[in-house]
Amino acid sequence: MADAAPFDVISAGLAEVHRQLLPVTDGEVASYIPQLALADPGDFGLALVSMDGHRYRAGRAGVPFSLQSVSKPFVYALALAELGLEEVRARVGLEPSGDAFNAISLERGTGRPANPMINAGAIATTNLVPAGSPQERFGRVLEGLSAFAGRRLDVDEEVYRSESATGDRNRALAYLMHAAGSLRTEPRAAVETYFRQCAVRVDTVDLAVMAATLATGGVNPVSGRRVVPEPVAVQVLAVMATCGMYDAAGDWLVRVGLPAKSGVSGGLAAASPGRFGIACYSPPLDSTGSPVRAVAALREMSRRFGMHLMHVPAPGPATVTACTTAEHWPAGADRPPAERELLAREGRRIALVAARGELDFTAVERVLWALASVAPQQPGWLVLDLAEVLWVRPPARAMLEAALERVTAAGHRVAVVPGAQAYGHGGLASGAQVCGSRAEAVAWAEDGLVASSAGLRKPPD
Q1: Which residue out of 17, 71, 72, 191 is catalytically annotated?
Q2: Mean pLDDT computed over 430-443
Q3: Residue of 264, 414, 442, 450 with catalytic role
Q4: What is the DSSP string of 3-59?
Q5: DSSP state, residue 68
Q6: Helix (H) or strand (E) run with residue 442 in it
Q7: Measured between alpha carbons, how far is 361 from 148 in angstroms, rounded to an integer?
Q8: Is 313 helix (H, G, I), strand (E, B) or coil?
Q9: Burial level of 405, CB count in 10 A (0-12/13-18/19+)?
Q10: Which of 71, 88, 96, 426 has the fewest CB within 10 Å, making it most exposed?
Q11: What is the torsion angle, in degrees rounded to the nearest 10, for the CA atoms of residue 443, residue 447, residue 448 and residue 451?
Q12: Whole-number mean pLDDT of the chain?
């Protein structure tokens, strides 16, 4: 294998951003938790993990630090995976608070926290993880965070003790929620579990792996293990996008455009769905509690590499590769002259559409539009060639199957050439003919047209 270094432009790009921002000295290291004040303000690490589990880094990406608030979206994911969105939402809201991370932001009348990214919401969320005791609950939390990171994590006990010794505001939040009924576990034990969660130790590469696990729909791209279901990852990323950067979430989404979460130890994790996870570590914080260099690094990388979610993606290869009828694409079977004449005259009653690549909502809409444009007005034959389709997203598959059911009910006969990775065999529509190739599918339709129009042979089985 050739030396990978000349090809590693990603690490080179991270290193360039690191060099550009290392001289920045703005911000203050968090001191309200005494142990955090001991961090080196010069520490600055960047890491990116691709959907294939390839890891890239720059700077001091191996320096360990406690997760603090960056743990919140991952524990929220664990609670959602256990209980589902509606049960969790009944106890913790989904709306941005517009307040600082430690604000007393409880819904009037219910005591429900505004969202799981502020401290009150995170305390409530942690204690939704099912367990028989606080020790068991934290064990489950640590196991889940380790699964996100792809390795066994541990707790920085000194940070935990420091946090516990100075955590009266969080205890006050817990008691308020307990009094209102939104926190149903004993307040002091609930907060201690949360403190231990915040003290779980990672490095920048671990954090990038954790973000990449959300970006890839809940599957850790390094270990290959599914950590949470795909719908849970989607829900967590949505909350990160709207609430993850606290009262600076709107500015972040406009300037960077990635779901993200910051923490007062200096960590920041961001995810680009279906593309990568990225993380930064730099202890000095801005006034909102986010790391100054990390925020600047993500802004620069988003600008430089076009990471913003709202960018229109570059056009790829055309989804529809054929949109015609059997008049112009006959199967080529050896037929008697009378059948050839019939097919030349009536071949427009057989529509053929072929597609390729990945089918999502947009791609399936194009396929269905193409089918409608060439389908005969009276009941006829539709051939859908998906042999070059690599994957069909579940909602897109549901759209396609519903359309095929409808056209079959309207009297059309359907043949499908399924891509092995996209569908396997069968199940596309009730009564659909599954064929091994486009020529076989068109020949099947031609046999049906000949039999029904001329009575020259029985319809095929």
Answers
A1: 72
A2: 90
A3: 264
A4: -SGGG-HHHHHHHHHHHHHTT---SB---SSGGGGGS-TT--EEEEEETT--EEEEE
A5: G
A6: helix 438-454
A7: 29
A8: coil
A9: middle
A10: 426
A11: 170
A12: 90
Tokens describing residue 312: 């229109």
> Is 72 annotated as catalytic?
yes
Write the single-letter amino acid at 312: V
The pTM assigned to this predicted structure is 0.82
Q: What is the pLDDT of residues 119-132, one digit of tens each?
A: 999 999 999 999 99
Task: Give DSSP secondary structure letters for 396-430.
Answer: HHHHHHHHHHHHHHTT-EEEEE--TTTT-SS-SST
User: Active-site residue 281, yes or no?
Assistant: no
> Is there a catalytic annotation at residue 261?
no
Residue written as token pair 């969320």 = 125
d(Cα 77, Cα 62) in Å, to the nearest integer? 25
Contact 284, 291 (CB under 8 A): yes
Q: Which residue in the list 76, 246, 281, 423 is annotated as catalytic?
A: 246
Annotated catalytic residue, options 56, 76, 160, 194 = 194
In this structure, how many other beta carbons lie within 10 angstroms of the beta carbon of residue 377? Answer: 6
What is the separation of C-alpha 59 from the centre of its chain, rounded to a whole number of angstroms? 27
**Cβ burial 338-375 (10 Å sphere, 16+ → b, else e):** ebeebbeebbebbbbbbbbbebeeebbebbbebbeebb
Q: Which of 69, 162, 282, 302 is catalytic?
A: 69
Per the annotation, the verdict on 32 as an active-site residue is no
- Tell me the HSE value of 435 on the side-chain side, using a 13 A CA sphere: 23
Q: 265 catalytic, yes or no?
A: no
Report the distance separating Cα 240 and Cα 235, nearest Å.
Answer: 9
Give the total residue count for the chain. 461
Tokens of 403: 């359309």
CB atoms within 10 A of CB 157: 12
Residue 341, amino acid: E
pLDDT of residue 450: 92
